[in-house]
Write a structure and sequence with these properties.
mainly alpha; 62% helix; globular
């Protein structure tokens, strides 16, 4: 396997140093591709524990998806192709993760509800090691999946005009690189239908904004991320799952792009973009 994460325990060491699974995998894959960005990686912290410790998709997936998105941006000057490439590579990441973990969701993996103090304490004492072990196991596999997903012939890849996550970033005043970086979040990460990728993208972007004003503070569980989550939760009436919000799963990136282009999830996207931090 052609991976610089071949050094034994490298992923564990990085995980212990950085503190969150999401930031760890953003860092590891960014390093693999030579795209390190401290602020982009640190802004992934709130996605650990399955989006603000809510138990949804494992933070390793969010971090890895952001990193392949940033690499996709650097691979082509065609914005629509880059969006599609990031989404395609994220689908390969999800498939790889599913082959190495019992679930894509944090709560199922950790068997922990982080909102309960006793369970959090039990996790820190007895179960955190399982996450370190999974990180070590999946890191080289994640690199392989990312490279596979990004190796598709670009001229044969149908472009996509937009995605839910990239549209949120666009409406929040983000740049093209940020839009492509989060494209893989779309449809609940790679169209898998799990917790909302637009929500995760907005949390990431608002955390970046918050960090600019609070550079010395931890981004983990920051107030901007919490405010973003509350606004979404109220608008969605407590529903986080993509396929339940949309009423469907998307079989192709083109189908997802068409749904968004025709106004799908418009109210949620506008609500997320309007949250001031």
């Amino acid at each position: 396997m052609d991976s610089t994460i071949a050094v034994n325990n490298d992923a564990k060491k990085v995980f212990r140093r950085l503190g969150t699974c999401s930031r760890t995998f953003g860092y590891l894959l960014n390093r693999e591709f030579g795209n390190n960005s401290d602020i982009d990686e640190q802004a992934l912290d709130p996605l650990a524990g399955g989006i603000l410790q809510k138990g949804q998709q494992c933070g390793m997936l969010w971090g890895a998806a952001m990193a392949v998105g940033r690499e996709a941006y650097h691979m082509t000057t065609d914005h629509n192709i880059a969006l599609a490439l990031a989404l395609k590579a994220s689908q390969d990441l999800v498939a790889s993760f599913e082959a190495n973990a019992p679930s894509v969701n944090c709560r199922a993996i950790t068997r922990t509800d982080f909102s309960k103090k006793f369970q959090m304490f039990r996790y820190m004492l007895f179960r955190a090691k399982n996450c370190f072990n999974l990180a070590e196991l999946w890191a080289p596999e994640a690199v392989e999946a990312a490279k596979k997903g990004l190796s598709i012939e670009i001229n044969k890849l149908p472009g996509m005009r937009t995605s839910c996550a990239s549209e949120v970033i666009n409406n929040m005043g983000g740049n093209n690189e940020e839009m492509v970086a989060v494209s893989g979040f779309s449809g609940g990460i790679g169209l898998s239908g799990n917790a909302c990728g637009a929500l995760a993208a907005a949390i990431w972007k608002n955390t970046k904004k918050w960090m600019e004003a609070n550079p010395e503070q931890s981004a983990y569980n920051n107030p901007a991320a919490q405010k973003t989550y509350r606004g979404f939760y109220e608008m969605s009436k407590g529903e986080l799952i993509c396929h339940k919000i949309c009423g469907k799963k998307f079989s192709t990136p083109e189908a997802h792009a068409e749904f968004i282009s025709k106004g799908g999830c418009k109210d949620l996207i506008e609500t997320l973009a309007s949250i001031k931090v």
